Amino acid sequence: MAKVRTTLTIDDEVLRAVKVRAALAGRGDSEVIEEALRRDLGLDLLERMWQRAALSAEQADELAVEAQHATRRRRR
Fold it and tell me: For residue 29, how many other CB atoms are within 10 A of its CB?
């Protein structure tokens, strides 16, 4: 997965907590922040679900298209 550099403005207390957690875990600040964002956005759950899914990529694509069509039909 590609990484992108960005600048954030966050509360001093939050940054301090990030630095403490990173130091205790022997990880970088960015890793701790990314993990927290992934967890809060639900991305970690989606990744775990995909890892356990028995669908092939083609089957998953077909299911996604079916869901889109069903949603569009309900809106009309």
Answer: 13
Whole-angstrom Cα distance, residue 37 to residue 49? Answer: 18
Closest CA relative to residue 36, chosen from 24, 18, 12 = 18
> pTM of whole model > 0.85?
no
For residues 61 and 36, which has the higher predicted lDDT (pLDDT)?
36
- Cβ atoms of 21 and 32 closer than 8 Å: yes
Q: Are 31 and 22 in contact (CB under 8 A)?
A: yes
| Chain position carrying tokens 């890793």 | 31
| pLDDT tens string 33-47 | 999 998 888 776 666
> Which one, of 23, 22, 24, lies nearest residue 35 by Cα?
22
